[in-house]
Amino acid sequence: MKMKTLLLAVICTISPLLWAQPPQTPAPRNPARAGHHQHMMEMHQQEMEAMKADVEKMKGSLAQMKANLATIKDVNELDRWRSNVEMWETLVSHMERMQKHMKSMGPGMMGSPGMNMPPAPPSPPAATKPE
Asked: Would 72 disulfide with which of 9, 78, 90, 123, CB 3.0-4.6 Å?
């Protein structure tokens, strides 16, 4: 019985001390992981610039297609070209929305599970040198 009382007293004494401890700060970032993050940020920026260039090129081609509509005399051919222009307008507007979304999300979106991409793999533990 004395042992149970002693054990209960020790638990009651230690429990508040454990609850009062401040949360531990995470370990400093792994330099390899920081390098990976920097690489992902650069890759995101390159992809954003490439997408912007693609959208601008597509807008130019679309404007040329619209201008060519006035030269088409055959009604069936004109209907096909109008449908084609409409499809490309839809695609360009979709790409512009995606571009705005990617810009607002930043480079972190490239590995987010919501984008059907696996998260970035964890970096391997630092190798220790034998002594």
From this structure: 78
112: its two tokens? 């987010």
Q: Is residue 34 part of a domain?
A: no
Q: Given a cut of 90, is residue 77 above it in pLDDT?
A: yes
Residue 8 placed within a domain: no
Q: How much is the pLDDT for 115?
A: 46
Q: The whole model's pTM is what?
A: 0.53
Quick one: three-class SS letters along the chain? CHHHHHHHHHHHHHHHHHHHCCCCCCCCCCHHHHHHHHHHHHHHHHHHHHHHHHHHHHHHHHHHHHHHHCCCCCHHHHHHHHHHHHHHHHHHHHHHHHHHHHHHHCHHHHHCHHHCCCCCCCCCCCCCCCC
How many domains does the chain contain in total?
Answer: 1
